[in-house]
Amino acid sequence: MVQFSTLYQLETLNEVLAQFGNPDPELSENARRALLFFQKESGKSHGQEVLKTGVERLITLYFGQPYERAIGVEYWHIQADEFFGDLWVRSIVKERLLRLSGYHAGLFLITGLRSAILDGREYWTERCDQEFFETKNWIESIVASRVAANQNLSLVVL
Predict the structure, then answer these.
(1) Which of 99, 100, 115, 150 could form a disulfide with 106 if both were Cys (CB 3.0 to 4.6 A apart)?
(2) Contact indicator for 132, 115 with CB cutoff of 8 Å
């Protein structure tokens, strides 16, 4: 499996949010240009903090400040060095879904899952790939069982 760069993940998220968030094409084009400029200016690889900051800025760009949002947006970045146990993941997901429960529509965005599964190993193996898909499916099942029937919630795992 190809390991995605931080900028590639941000570009992908920009395209997803352009479809989900504010439909203003000029806004998404400006974000696309800013990411392209950032990519050309820096030739080095970027860490998880750049990803986290970039995602938070894109969310603010598309949905506004948290106090003025019409839809609920929850962002969870899993740190590569965090403990990644089943009960911990379940409690975090339930807590984040509880924050989204008052909204008619919402977005639950998760990043860093691949890094947490890689867990310091050098190569992404078939076992890592299987663990990623099992964990992602498990998170999806928790979300599906906890969301109200009348709530329109999108789950994005990058």
Answers:
(1) 100
(2) no
